[in-house]
Amino acid sequence: MTIATTKTVGEIAAEVPGSTREFEKLGIDYCCGGSQTLGEACAQAKIPVDEALDRLKQGAAAASKTASTEDWKSKPVADLIAHINATHHVFVRSECSRILALAEKVVGVHGKNHPELLQVQEQFAALSEELSLHLMKEEQILFPYVIRMEESVLAGEPAPPAMFGTVMNPIGMMMQEHDGAGDALRSLRVITHDYKLPDDACASYRALYEALQGFEADLHQHIHKENNILFPRVAAMERAH
Ligand SMILES: [Fe+2]
Ligand SMILES: [Fe+2]
User: Fold this and answer.
1) Mind listing the pLDDT tens digit for each residue in 170-203?
2) Ligand 2 mean position, distance from CA 183 (Å)
3) Is 239:167 a contact under the CB 8 Å cutoff?
4) How far apart are CA 120 and CA 118, in angstroms?
5) Are the C-beta atoms of residues 1 and 62 closer than 8 Å to each other?
6) Any idea which ligand is nearest the CA of 87?
7) What radius of gyration do the chain's Cα atoms show?
């Protein structure tokens, strides 16, 4: 497999199996920063391009041996949306309440010795509130419209009327909100020194940091599927319609 360094990170994430896992390990932002080329992203992360290419090739070889990844670039857009709702949206909702409860508990016990925990709690609460509104906008406005749009394309009918003009308007807004969530995750990493546990951390402290890292990994995948696969497909569908 040849991977061009002039391709964007988002394109590689959508095309090369296993690449998102490798990007995650290399600290390359493939969701919100997906419009950078691989060359640019490597320069920014201070990683030699050859090393990144090797890792991507190895990752692709390993991924092809394990369970096949669903090809969301060719399945109906409605299926991708159903998948995003049933997995990532459900996960965000259940994890937000679990993490908020964990943070409350850990701040109560360790907040005095570790004041940064209060910042973690505050910033996560703000992120959770923003995400709750974000999911609602996708589920109630954007996604139903996109599903109707795909149905009309398949039926050879004109696109349904939209209250927001071109579909690129709500997509632009969602992408801006994704950037905001990406920034919040980065800031949590800075505050927690990459989720490094202090010596006096208890089991709940550990559970909180693990949950936050799991939340981050899932949100990266979630935003990647929307920014790099779903939204470009919707844009192409609108252009062709
Ligand atoms: Fe979403
Ligand atoms: Fe989203």
Assistant:
1) 999 999 999 999 999 999 999 999 999 999 888 9
2) 14
3) no
4) 5
5) no
6) 1
7) 19
